[in-house]
Design brief:
The protein has helices spanning 26-41, 123-136, 151-159, and strands spanning 46-48, 58-61, 69-80, 83-89, 92-101, 104-110, 116-122, 145-149. The longest helix has 16 residues, at 26-41. Strand 2 and strand 3 form a beta hairpin. The protein has one domain (12-159): Alpha-Beta Complex (Peptide Deformylase), CATH 3.90.45.10. The chain is globular, with a radius of gyration of 15 Å. The chain has three helices and eight strands, in the order H-E-E-E-E-E-E-E-H-E-H. The N and C termini lie far apart (37 Å). It is an alpha+beta fold. The protein binds cobalt (II) ion (CO). Cobalt (II) ion binds next to helix 2. Cobalt (II) ion (CO) binds at residues 89-91, 131, 135, 141.
Length: 160
């Protein structure tokens, strides 16, 4: 595996709609493995392929060690409720803001072998999934921030 360089805003690829994956091959498996390693190394809870310079609908999310989810060609099927919370993004170092999103989502995606699966998530996992799925459509969290948060304020959040 390898740690990949993370693409930072304002690189153009971050605002582009990614292409659907059609070959579930070794190259895809390698990309997923490298993305996972890169996300862990960067201390993130999610990473989308455009963030490592690949314009494909591929993302990984892991909000707790050992719970990694690989999403290929993901689609949100249902959403419900609302939550507001603080988000950051590996492509925007040291930038944090409050974002409102649906509280619960149902997502359909493919795994690395191309099999379809559905996942229902709520709360923070639902937030992480939506953040990464947005990336694949070229949508960045900054377009949804209602209020930016300073690092000082963020530390206070962490203590709560
Ligand atoms: Co992000």
């Amino acid at each position: 595996m390898a740690i990949l360089p993370i693409v930072l805003f304002p690189e153009k690829i971050l605002k582009q709609k990614c292409d659907k994956v059609t070959s579930f091959d070794k190259k895809l498996a390698k990309l997923l493995n490298n993305m996972y390693e890169t996300m862990v190394e960067a201390d993130g809870v999610g990473l989308a392929a455009p963030q490592v310079g690949v314009k494909k609908q591929v993302a990984v999310v892991e909000i707790e060690e050992g719970s990694a989810i690989e999403l290929i060609n993901p689609e949100v099927l249902e959403m419900e409720g609302e939550q507001t919370g603080v988000e950051g993004c590996l492509s925007f170092p040291s930038l944090y803001g409050e974002v409102s999103r649906p509280y619960r989502v149902k997502v359909r995606a493919q795994d690395r072998k191309g099999s379809f699966f559905e996942i229902e998530a709520e709360d923070f996992l639902a937030r992480a999934l939506q953040h990464e799925i947005d990336h694949l459509q070229g949508v960045l969290f900054t377009s949804k921030v209602s209020r930016y948060i300073s690092e000082e304020e963020l530390e206070r959040f962490g203590e709560e």
